[in-house]
Design brief:
The chain has about 400 residues and is α/β, with parallel strands linked by helices. The chain folds into 2 domains: about 220 residues, Glycogen Phosphorylase B (Rossmann fold, 3-Layer(aba) Sandwich); about 160 residues, 3-Layer(aba) Sandwich (Rossmann fold), CATH 3.40.50.2000. About 40% of the residues lie in helices and about 20% in strands. The chain contains 13 helices and 16 strands. Strands 4-3-2-1-5-6-9-10 form an 8-stranded mixed sheet, with helices on both faces. Helix 1 crosses helix 13, helix 3 packs parallel to helix 5 and helix 10 crosses helix 12. The termini are close together. The mean pLDDT is about 95.
Length: about 400
Amino acid sequence: MILRIHYNFDLKGGAEYDILKLMDVFDKHGGDYWQNYLLLITADSNKFKLKLHHQEETIYFEKQAEVSKYLEDLILKLNIKILHIHSQPSMKITKMVLNLKLPVFRSMHEAMIICPGWSKYWLTEDKPCEISFGTACLINAYTKKCTQSRHPQKLMKAYKNVKFEINAASNVYQAIFIYSDFMKNEAIKSGIDSSKIKKIPSPQYDHFDDKIKLIQDKITLIYTGRLSKQKGVKYLVEAVALLKARGFTNFEVLIFGEGPDGNFLKAHVNNLNLNELISFYGWVDRSVLVDYYKKAHISVIPSTYPDNFPNSVAESMLAQLAVVAFDSGGTCEWFNHMETGVKVEHKTAKSLSEAIENLINNKDLIKLIGKNARQEILNNHSLRKTFDVYKSEYIKVT
């Protein structure tokens, strides 16, 4: 029995979606022996908030001893044998979990363990952070705007938590699961023992089929994700302007998502007279998005943020889309350049437009890349393969 532990009660983000998929993986393939539960827990000042996923009741405690007692009782009640911390920014909670004297595994859905800002990204310079954890993080929080919050107390809390994770907790974890070589290398550079780090598949649902896509006169490009600076949608908009200037109009761009840059991007599209080529759809239900994936041909991932392993890349590949992505973080580790995707080395609108133009001019290449991409994900990121890899690590301590 596995108890998964996470901090975010809003189960809608990328890490949260990944956790829910992992729960489903074990429900489908684990049987009774590998049954898993998800405990959501946060610490705010001296108060604790807890909820067992799929149960309506939210529990509040003021004393740490009460939380420890609750955890001990829950472990006995559910017959828990393994604890797995997914994302947890509270050193206080992590210490409590480690003190329960059960084997503890850890996931790196993001850089929270090694970066006080959680993202290894400098917002003011719009590029990945180039240094490893240290006192410079406290300076860069202000000069390069690299943290979630620059409030001194919150910054120091995040800094101390990372120091604890690297120097103490990482030595106790049975293993630390990551999805990309990028994240593995960042963890090692920060001082985490490489033998603790295990690269694993990312479980993917297959909502598609092997039928080769039809490409008529108009080619459909799709972007899905948050509309924020680090996601690079501005570069996509400007790439479209360059394509239009070169006489290309036999395509459309569909943008799904919302975020702080939404109004800016819509105004940018309007100012560049691109409304006939670019459409905004906001957030849509996943089933609706799947339908659009089935009709689209190219998926553009122009993120300048060093993603661990973005799910949108895998979904696009399964849908036989030719993925065009900036080489950021682990984003392009899903595919081989020009075989199962297209890697854009230089993060500029010009480079992005040239990569897209090459595909627009070669419809057979779109089909070939899409076909190969789908097979790549089916071979390496199925629910069954994911279960087998996790099981091989869990079984070492049972």
